[in-house]
Design brief:
The protein is of the alpha+beta class. It folds into seven domains: about 1-50, no CATH class; about 55-170, Beta-Lactamase, CATH 3.30.450; about 180-300, Beta-Lactamase (2-Layer Sandwich); about 325-430, PAS domain (Beta-Lactamase, 2-Layer Sandwich); about 435-555, PAS domain (Beta-Lactamase, 2-Layer Sandwich), CATH 3.30.450.20; about 560-680, Beta-Lactamase (2-Layer Sandwich), CATH 3.30.450; about 690-850, Alpha-Beta Plaits, CATH 3.30.70. The protein is built from 31 helices and 35 strands. The strands form eight sheets. It has a six-stranded antiparallel sheet, with helices on both faces. A five-stranded antiparallel sheet has the order 8-7-11-10-9, sandwiched between helices. β34, α31 and β35 (about 850) form a beta-alpha-beta unit. The mean pLDDT is about 85.
Length: about 850
C-alpha cells in the first residue's frame, strides 16, 4: 500500500489532468459520469506512466524475505568481506545477537567472527572465477566448546537485488566429525585385531573388488596390501578352472540364495604361483537399508591339513579296497592261528565262502599235521628275527586237491608290541611251476642251440678294447676269455691296414656285413673270417661301442660239412620233440617247417603247413597282435598269448615262445607253442565268479563297489552329475516264510532281470546282499534319478511270480541321492541313499524318497 501511495503522489499532475478533462467534457451530471466512467477509467489505465524502480525494490524485498526464511545459516558478504546481510539461522549459530538485524551498517567478518574471516580469506585470497564454489571444513571455537562447520562460499554472478560479492553458508558437521573420529578409533582397533589373528581376513564389495585385507592375508598370499586393494579377487587369486564355480557361489550369496553364514573351500593362487587350499567362513555385509553391499571372509589355509586327510583317506580306502580287490589270496589270522577273515580271492582259491573259512583252524587248509607244524616253525623263526616269513608250501582246497603255494606271512603288532594278528598272503603258483618247467625245457633247448652256433661274437669300446666275447670266439682264436677281455683288437688282425679300413667303413656306414679279414690266433696262425659288425648307439643316438660276429671260413667245405651235420641233429631234435614247433620266415610269415606235433595239433599235414602262412592259423587281427606284443613287453613276458584256428574250425588259446635262429645261413623264427585253452577258460570263469552274483547274475557287492568307485572318480574329475539308488524289497521275509525260499530266489531273479531291461546300458546295477540292490546312474542329476527310480518302482509293482497255483507280487522301496562335492568315497553316497531308503520304509513302503 505504501508503494501505491508513493506512486500516486509521484503522478498526481497526470491524474488531475485526466479527471478535469473528463468533468469538463461531460459536465457534472452523475448519471453521465457513471455511464461513461468504465471507458474513461480504461483510458486512464492505458495511458498510465510506467513505475520507476518498483520491480527492483520488490525483488529485493522478495530476496531478503527468502534469505531470512532459510534454515541453513547464511551470510551475504561484500567484495571486501563485510557482512551485508545475515539470516536468523546464522545469527543464532554465530551468536551475533538479536540487535544485529536492526543494524543497517555493514560490518567486517573479522570483527564479528574472526575464525570465519581467516578461512574465507585463506580460500579467497584474490579474485575467483564467477560461479566458483569453495567448500571447507572448519573447526570453530565457541563459548561452550569447539564445533565443526562445513563452509561453502560462492561469488555472485551478477548484482542480485542490490547485492554483490559472496554468499556464504554454514553446515554444522560436529556430530559427523565426532562420529568419524569414533569410527576411526574403532577401525584402528579392528585393524589391529585383524592384523594379529592367524586367519586370512578380507572384504569384497558387490563387484568383487578387494576393499580390505589383513596382514596375515597379505603374508599368506605373498602380496603387499596396496597390491590387493581394488583388485578383483576372483580374477587375481582364483585358479582359472575354478573361477566360474566361485563366481556362481558369490552370485548366490549376493542374491540371497545361500545361508548368510556360509562355509566354502577353494584353491587360491599366491603371488609365487603356489596353489593354496583355503577354507572360508563368509558373512554378508549390508547397508542401513538391509541391501547386501559386500562379503567379509575369514579363511584358514588348510592345504597341508587337507593333503594329510586325503592321504590318510586314500591310504585307508586303498587298504580296504586292496584287501577286497587283491588278486592274491589274503587270510587274516588270530594270534593262535585261526582264520579271522578272508578276501574274495581266498574264497575262490579254496572253494569256500568267507563264513566257512572263518570257522576253520589254519591246520585244516594244510596237507597234514607235520606239514602244518613245519609251516609254524618257519613262520615263528622269521618272527623271532623281526622279519616276515616267505617260503613255498602246498595247501589243500575244499575238494581235497593239493596245489603249490607261495606264502608271505607277517605279524601284526600293536603299539604296545603285542601281537594283534597275522596276515598270510598266498599265491597259487601252479601255473608258475608249470611255466618254470616249460621254461627250463626251453632254456635247455635254446642253450643247446646257442652253444651249437659256430660264429664268434665280440663287443669292443670305441678305442678297440675287447669288452665281451662268446665261447665260440675263444674256440676260433684259441684264447681263454680272460686273455681277450681288455685286450686291444689290433693284436687280432694279421694285416694292420685291414683294421683301419674296416673302422673307416664302419664310421661312414654304421654297419658292415660280409667283410672278410685275416685274424691271428693265439698260436700265431692265421684264419680267414667273415665278419658282420655295427656301431652300438645310446638313447641319444651317439656311438658308444662296436659289436660284431664272425665265422671261420678258412675251410669252407669243412664248414659246410659241419653245417650239414648240425642240420641233421636239428632235424632229429625238431621232429622227435613232443612240443608243437614251427619254423617261420620272419619277413613273409611263411611257415618253413612244422614238426609232427604241430601237424597233430592243427590237423594239417606237414606238407600242407609248409605251404601256409601264420595268417592262416592266427585268429587275431593285426591290431590285436600288435597290442598283445606291447602287453607282453610291458609285463616282461617271454611269450605271446594268441588264438590259433585248427583245421576243424576250433579256436584254441596258445602261448607262443619265439626266438630267432640261423638255418642254412638264413634267419628264421623258431616258435614253440603250448595249448593253454583250458587254463585261460578257467581263469575267465574264476574272474566271472569273483565279480558276479551267483543267484541273479548281476554285479556282486565287491564288483559293484569297484565300478562305483571308478564312476565316482570320473564324475568328480569331469564335474558330471551322478545319481545313486538303494532298493529293498518290501516284506521280503514274509515272501520267504509264506511261499518258501525258492519263491524268494525267483523274486530276486525277476527283479534283477527287470532292472537290467529297464536301466540303460551304461548304468551299474548290483546286489549288495539279501534283498538289497543298488544302482549307479552316470551323468544323471537328482530329478532324473528320481524319475528313473519311479520307473523302476512301477516296473517292480507290475511283476508277478507264479508258483504252482499262487501268484506272488511284491513292491520295492527306493532311496535316491546324488554325489556331492564333499563325498570322498562311494560308501558315503550309498549311506545317504540308504538313509533315504529307510525313510521310504517309514513313510509306508512302495515309494521313492530322496536323500
Amino acid at each position: 500500500m505504501d508503494r501505491l501511495k508513493t506512486y500516486i503522489a509521484e503522478n498526481e499532475e497526470w491524474l488531475k489532468e485526466c479527471i478535469l478533462a473528463y468533468v469538463k467534457k461531460h459536465g457534472s451530471t452523475p448519471d453521465a459520469i457513471a455511464e461513461e466512467w468504465p471507458d474513461f477509467f480504461s483510458g486512464i489505465v492505458g495511458t498510465m506512466p510506467s513505475p520507476v524502480h518498483s520491480d527492483q525494490e520488490q525483488r529485493k524485498e522478495d530476496v531478503l524475505r527468502l534469505f531470512q526464511s532459510l534454515d541453513t545459516p547464511a551470510l551475504i558478504l561484500s567484495d571486501s568481506f563485510e557482512i551485508s546481510a545475515a539470516n536468523k539461522a546464522a545469527i543464532n549459530t554465530l551468536s551475533l545477537g538479536d540487535d544485529f538485524l536492526a543494524t543497517s551498517a555493514s560490518m567486517a567478518v573479522a570483527d564479528l567472527v574472526p575464525w570465519l574471516a581467516d578461512c574465507v580469506q585463506e580460500f579467497f585470497p584474490g579474485e575467483r572465477d564467477v560461479g566458483s564454489v569453495c567448500r571447507m571444513d572448519v573447526a570453530a571455537p565457541m563459548i561452550y566448546g569447539e564445533k565443526y562447520f562445513s563452509v561453502s562460499v560462492s561469488k555472485f554472478s551478477e548484482v542480485v537485488a542490490g547485492f554483490s560479492g559472496y554468499i556464504l553458508t554454514l553446515e554444522d558437521i560436529s556430530f559427523r566429525v565426532e562420529t568419524e573420529k569414533q569410527l576411526s578409533r574403532e577401525r584402528n582397533r579392528v585393524a589391529h585385531y585383524l592384523d594379529v589373528v592367524g586367519s586370512i581376513i578380507l572384504a569384497q564389495d558387490a563387484s568383487g573388488a578387494i576393499t580390505m585385507v589383513n596382514r596375515t592375508g597379505s603374508e599368506h598370499l605373498g602380496y603387499a596390501e596396496n597390491e590387493l586393494l581394488g583388485q578383483n579377487w576372483i580374477d587375481l587369486m582364483v585358479p582359472v578352472e575354478q573361477r566360474d564355480e566361485v563366481r556362481d557361489y558369490f552370485y548366490m550369496i549376493f542374491s540371497g540364495q545361500t545361508e548368510i553364514d556360509d562355509e566354502y573351500t577353494n584353491y587360491v593362487v599366491a603371488k609365487d604361483g603356489r596353489h593354496r587350499l583355503v577354507h572360508w567362513q563368509n558373512r554378508v555385509l549390508t547397508n542401513e537399508g538391509g541391501n547386501v553391499i559386500g562379503v567379509l571372509s575369514s579363511g584358514m589355509d588348510v592345504t597341508e591339513k587337507r593333503a594329510m586327510e586325503e592321504a590318510l583317506s586314500e591310504k585307508e580306502l586303498w587298504l580296504r579296497n586292496t584287501f577286497v580287490a587283491l588278486g592274491e589270496t589274503v587270510l587274516i589270522l588270530t594270534p593262535d592261528w585261526n582264520v579271522l577273515d578272508a578276501n574274495p580271492a581266498a574264497e575262490i582259491l579254496f572253494g569256500m565262502t568267507n563264513e566257512e573259512l572263518s570257522e576253520l583252524s589254519l591246520l585244516e587248509l594244510h596237507v597234514d599235521r607235520p606239514h602244518y607244524a613245519e609251516f609254524l616253525v618257519k613262520s615263528q623263526a622269521a618272527f623271532d628275527k623281526g622279519e616276515k616269513a616267505q617260503f613255498e608250501m602246498a595247501l589243500r582246497r575244499s575238494d581235497g586237491t593239493l596245489f603249490p603255494a607261495d606264502h608271505s606271512v607277517s605279524l601284526i603288532l600293536g603299539d604296545d608290541g603285542l601281537a594283534l594278528g597275522i596276515v598270510n598272503v598266498i599265491r597259487d603258483i601252479s601255473a608258475r611251476k608249470k611255466a618254470e618247467q616249460v621254461l627250463q625245457e626251453s632254456e635247455e633247448k635254446f642253450r643247446r642251440i646257442f652253444e651249437s652256433i659256430e660264429e664268434g661274437y665280440m663287443v669292443t669300446d670305441l678305442a678297440g678294447d675287447v669288452q665281451m666275447v662268446n665261447p665260440a670266439t675263444c674256440r676260433l682264436l684259441g684264447y681263454e676269455e680272460s686273455d681277450l677281455l681288455g685286450k686291444s683288437i689290433d693284436s687280432l688282425y694279421s694285416i694292420k691296414d685291414e683294421r683301419m679300413h674296416l673302422r673307416r667303413q664302419l664310421v661312414e656306414k654304421g654297419a658292415i656285413r660280409g667283410v672278410q679279414v685275416q685274424a691271428r690266433r693265439k698260436d700265431g696262425s692265421s684264419i680267414v673270417v667273415e665278419a658282420n659288425t655295427h656301431l652300438i648307439r645310446n638313447e641319444s643316438g651317439n656311438a658308444v661301442a662296436m659289436e660284431g660276429t664272425f665265422r671261420d671260413i678258412t675251410d669252407r667245405i669243412e664248414a659246410e660239412g659241419i653245417l650239414k651235420e648240425r642240420e641233421k641233429q636239428y632235424r632229429a631234435f625238431f621232429e622227435n620233440n613232443h612240443a608243437i614247433m614251427l619254423l617261420v620266415d620272419p619277413r613273409t610269415e611263411r611257415i618253413i617247417d612244422a614238426n609232427p606235433a604241430a601237424s597233430d595239433f592243427y590237423g594239417y599235414s606237414v606238407d600242407d603247413m609248409r605251404d601256409m602262412t601264420m595268417g592262416s592259423i592266427n585268429a587275431l587281427t593285426q591290431d590285436e597282435i600288435f597290442r598283445e606284443m606291447q602287453l607282453s613287453r610291458q609285463e616282461g613276458r617271454s611269450y605271446f598269448i594268441m588264438k590259433h584256428i585248427l583245421v576243424n574250425g576250433d579256436i584254441r588259446d596258445v602261448e607262443v615262445y619265439s626266438g630267432p635262429i640261423m638255418v642254412q645261413g638264413k634267419q628264421r623264427l623258431y616258435s614253440v607253442i603250448h595249448d593253454v585253452t583250458q587254463r585261460i577258460r578257467l581263469e575267465q570263469k574264476m574272474k566271472r565268479l569273483a565279480t558276479t552274483d551267483g543267484l541273479t547274475g548281476v554285479n556282486n557287492r565287491h564288483n559293484f563297489f569297484v565300478l562305483g568307485s571308478r564312476e565316482l572318480v570320473r564324475a568328480k574329475r569331469y564335474k558330471n552329475p551322478l545319481a545313486v539308488l538303494m532298493l529293498d524289497i518290501d516284506y521280503f521275509k514274509s515272501i520267504n516264510d509264506t511261499h518258501g525260499h525258492q519263491t524268494g530266489d525267483l523274486v530276486l531273479r525277476m527283479l534283477a532281470a527287470a532292472s537290467t531291461t529297464t536301466l540303460r546300458e551304461t548304468d551299474i546295477f548290483g546286489r549288495l546282499g539279501g534283498e538289497e540292490f543298488a544302482v549307479i546312474l552316470p551323468e544323471t542329476g537328482l530329478q532324473e534319478g528320481l524319475e528313473a527310480a519311479e520307473r523302476l518302482r512301477e516296473v517292480y509293482a507290475g511283476l508277478e511270480a507264479r508258483v504252482e497255483e499262487s501268484v506272488v507280487t511284491f513292491t520295492v522301496s527306493i532311496g535316491t541321492t546324488v554325489v556331492r562335492t564333499s563325498d570322498r568315497t562311494i560308501e558315503e553316497v550309498l549311506n545317504r541313499a540308504d538313509e533315504a531308503l529307510y525313510k521310504a520304509k517309514r513313510m509306508g513302503r512302495n515309494r521313492v524318497e530322496r536323500g
